[in-house]
């Protein structure tokens, strides 16, 4: 497999001198093209911060992050935002959608900001994505008129508009009931099967069980890792048990 993203000795802290709080303590990791990875760990262990540094959202760290051969810290602001807009997709716990726009318009908004794109093509692409994720009938709905699961599907459509190489998900199922959470994970799995790498932060072992590699964080370090690559069957209950057992072993 080929590397898509790697981080080397990432150190990130907040505050100064004696008050300094180290949040990422020399994290190194590699994500291959098309991988499906989750990050688990206790609250405050640095999971979201890791996601923000790897995705170029937070540039204040030491060490290096290289995405698709480009060292992020060496890129000018415009180049970094181009890279993030074109090659990375983001899905958050609550999609940040505008209340005065319907679902379709919210999905196409970021793509429309790019003048080079053509309105008709962008709209058609968004409609096709909405169909793919099962919300094609909701395009005119206001964002307050859909369920959390439907809203998250729309968030995934928005993230997929640029055909990214990777989707970063920060607790993408955190605001959902367990049925919707599983549906969203099934959708991310499908997207991953089509070649897009997915990196999700989660507290939920059921969610992590859907991914093929689980990284465990504690106190700003990756302290353990599980790979399900060689499992012949996709027995998610068994994977969940393995994850829970590993969490017990490492005391998180
Ligand atoms: N802007 C900030 N200023 C100061 N400290 C911060 C800031 N952002 C995060 N932190 C601290 O960094 C640590 C790691 O935060 P982070 O959000 O990465 O953890 P997490 O593992 O994602 O937690 P959770 O599971 O609760 O979301 C926490 O102790 C948090 O308080």
Brief descriptors of the model:
single chain; 252 residues; alpha/beta; Rossmann fold; six-stranded mixed sheet; four-stranded antiparallel sheet; globular; binds adenosine-5'-triphosphate; ABC_transporter-like_CS; nucleotide-binding; ATP binding; MacB-like_ATP-bd; ABC transporter ATP-binding protein
Fold topology:
Elements: E1 3-14, E2 21-32, E3 36-40, H1 47-54, E4 62-67, E5 70-71, H2 77-87, E6 88-92, H3 103-112, H4 119-132, H5 148-160, E7 166-170, H6 178-193, E8 197-201, H7 205-208, E9 213-218, E10 221-227, H8 236-250
Parallel strand pairs: 3-8, 3-9, 6-7, 7-8
Antiparallel strand pairs: 1-2, 1-4, 4-5, 9-10
Adenosine-5'-triphosphate (ATP) binds next to helix 1.
Provide structural commentary.
- With 252 residues, the chain is an alpha/beta fold.
- It has a domain at 3-93 and 166-250: 3-Layer(aba) Sandwich (Rossmann fold), CATH 3.40.50.300.
- Helix content is 36%, strand content 26%.
- It has helices at residues 47-54, 77-87, 103-112, 119-132, 148-160, 178-193, 205-208, 236-250; strands at 3-14, 21-32, 36-40, 62-67, 70-71, 88-92, 166-170, 197-201, 213-218, 221-227.
- The strands form two sheets. A six-stranded mixed beta sheet has the order 6-7-8-3-9-10, with helices on both faces. Strands 2-1-4-5 form a four-stranded antiparallel beta sheet, covered by helices on one side.
- Helix 3 (103-112) packs across helix 4 (119-132).
- The radius of gyration is 18 Å and the shape is globular.
- The mean pLDDT is 93.
- Adenosine-5'-triphosphate (ATP) is lined by residues 14, 23, 41, 43-49.
